[in-house]
């Protein structure tokens, strides 16, 4: 039913990932037959169910202000219950305009200039920029690498929290850029340390819909006492390729925290949703679970192609992509930094991937590869990378 080998025209779409001018600003004077595997959106068409609902809305011909009607809340509650096995109450849910902007509002709501937040690094770089743009300091807790998998050093985390007294901890689960799925036990330790030290835990679960190895554990599965100190941010945007609609939501159980957060959203005029965003969310959550299952199978098969390619090279290591469509690869034994590798790969071959040094800290040995694309793109990229690595 779903053909993920089909290649939509993303150039006419005016998307950042495929725009030659944007790409040359970032990567230099690269060839026109480039293969973009960098920014984190997918090259697949949205589910036909969502497309049909959008067409219905267009035919109505009016795009006035809307609101979060009952179906929005019902869909979120149903999705979280069915897919993540957690019970969510309507009053806990708040509309937001994309997770990245929401990170800024969270910082505005709970920090003042000169305060600190803490992150596990490497991590998605807007975690850092959301703080620094507002004069808030960033404390980095380096993740340990054991057998090509990330682990949290809880003693170091607690020590840094006690020393720096951050107001917030931003926690990416599953982890971006590596795809690491955290266990209930690990998240319980993080949440306990935060609660005992009066640090609000902000959990980003936007990559929770792409699970390939193991089982995803929502942070909402923790004990109720710990949930009273947690802000959950998520959306259907990564799961269903709806990022351009800027529609997301938070789940906050603690009324005082929720009221403080909502006050800041109101101050920033975060009120009515995007007309298409709310339609997309409802349809994705209610009607597109089969599409998600199929796209995850396709992405996993792309990852297996990359994994087989990496196995040919003793000097390259690959973290298991437990979730997401973003692979995290250690290229340090090739004698190049991540920035040198990505720059030379782009100019010499046209394969565009992310430099790991962009992920706040501790990613300088790694590159991130977007596998949410057609299989022919993955195969072409690997063939070009093959020639490049052999030339080093």
Provide a descriptive summary of the structure in words:
The chain folds into 2 domains: 16-45 and 289-391, Alpha-Beta Complex (Aspartate Aminotransferase, domain 1); 53-287, Aspartate Aminotransferase, domain 2 (3-Layer(aba) Sandwich). The protein has 392 residues and is of the alpha/beta class. A hairpin with a 4-residue loop joins β5 (144-145) and β6 (150-151). The mean pLDDT is 98. It has helices at residues 20-27, 48-60, 70-84, 99-110, 126-132, 154-164, 184-196, 224-227, 237-240, 255-267, 275-287, 289-310, 338-349, 375-391; strands at residues 35-36, 93-96, 116-121, 137-142, 144-145, 150-151, 168-172, 200-204, 230-234, 248-252, 317-318, 326-330, 351-352, 354-355, 366-370.
